[in-house]
Design brief:
alpha/beta
């Protein structure tokens, strides 16, 4: 008969054999899908889950959950707003230039320079960690800056270029709380479970769960740039750390919100926050700066808070995040 100590030792040796040893006592998915896994909780989006999600399309109604990619949107302090630049315009031809013309055919051309997490976006598993290891025991030295082989040499966003598509669930915390949430308030597990019960919605393994707080619409309601900056720097409503065990229990693939950091800001002092608990420990993807107003109104009208969600990132090898235009289809 094996003793309890022997069982624990055996489990520890098994994790060492995979090269992935998470912090004792932490809920994690290290080694769950193999030593070399770079997809994390995206593995929960099985073909069966995707087929089920496709069956949620009943009205053929679509909702873009993206804000405009321009100079005017909310960006986490320290990041540049997107810059959209025209290199060839109709005015160039009008003033006598030839631009990109081929024969009689004329073309316009433009570029965009932006932080990959400077608009509606996903945080990849290589975006955030604590100590010196990322998800599944990947060393922090795997994130490099060399021009030719830089970026995330492991856990890059390209690992889910064909994923993060499946059943989406809106948790309308804002509506459940009466339409207002105080700045800096933490949305707890109890809040989320109460909102889901009120909606009559259940969470399934592999779900992409989206939380409505009203923060992004609050930003756009301000016209003055100075007021917008103050709004960005002020305490922000977001998810509480006590949701990390719930997310693990429910086997959720990704979580997103209509704020710039998902979790409450500023986070508790000395904490690794939800970013550490989700990206690093659980391999769960984080979405930020989503637009949820039209979707929320439709869900409230028909009472259905589940939908097919297409939210695949751009194929950018080595990127630690990606902008996207998530589409909810009901």
């Amino acid at each position: 008969m094996r003793t309890l100590g022997g069982v624990i030792l055996g489990l520890g040796l098994a994790l060492v054999a995979t090269g992935a040893v998470a912090e004792p006592g932490k809920l994690h998915n290290w080694g769950r899908w193999g030593a070399g896994d770079e997809r994390g909780a995206a593995n929960l989006l099985t073909p069966e889950a995707l087929v089920h999600a496709a069956g949620l399309i009943q009205k053929g109604k679509t909702f873009s959950l993206a804000i405009p990619i321009d100079m005017n949107g909310p960006v986490f302090p320290g990041r540049l707003n997107p810059h959209h630049t025209m290199t060839v315009t109709g005015a160039d031809y009008h003033s006598g230039g030839d631009g990109l013309s081929i024969g009689r055919l004329k073309f316009a051309d433009d570029y965009i320079y932006m932080a990959l997490q400077g608009s509606t976006q996903w945080d990849g598993l290589s975006h955030g960690w604590y100590d010196d290891e990322l998800y599944n025991g990947v060393p922090e030295s795997a994130i490099r800056s060399a021009p030719m082989a830089g970026g995330a040499t492991k856990l890059g966003i390209e690992n889910v270029k064909d994923s993060l598509v499946g059943r989406g669930v809106l948790v309308d915390v804002l509506r459940h709380k009466g339409g207002t949430l105080a700045p800096g308030v933490a949305i707890t597990r109890a809040d989320v479970e109460a909102a889901l019960a009120a909606q009559g919605t259940e969470i399934r393994p592999g779900d992409i769960v989206v939380f409505r707080t009203g923060w992004v619409p609050g930003f756009y309601a301000l016209a003055d740039p100075v007021e917008r900056t103050r709004y960005l720097l002020a305490p922000q409503t977001g998810l509480d750390e006590d949701l990390a065990p719930w997310i693990h229990e429910k086997k959720i693939t990704a979580v997103a919100a209509d704020n710039v950091g998902l979790e409450v800001f500023p986070p508790p002092e000395g904490s690794v926050g939800l970013h550490g608990a989700l990206l690093r420990d659980q391999g769960v993807y984080i979405g930020e700066i989503w637009w949820l107003e039209e979707l929320a109104a439709d869900c409230a009208e028909d009472g259905r808070y589940e939908f097919f969600l297409a939210a695949q990132p751009l194929h950018i090898p080595g990127a630690v995040g990606s902008p996207l235009n998530p589409l909810a289809i009901k």
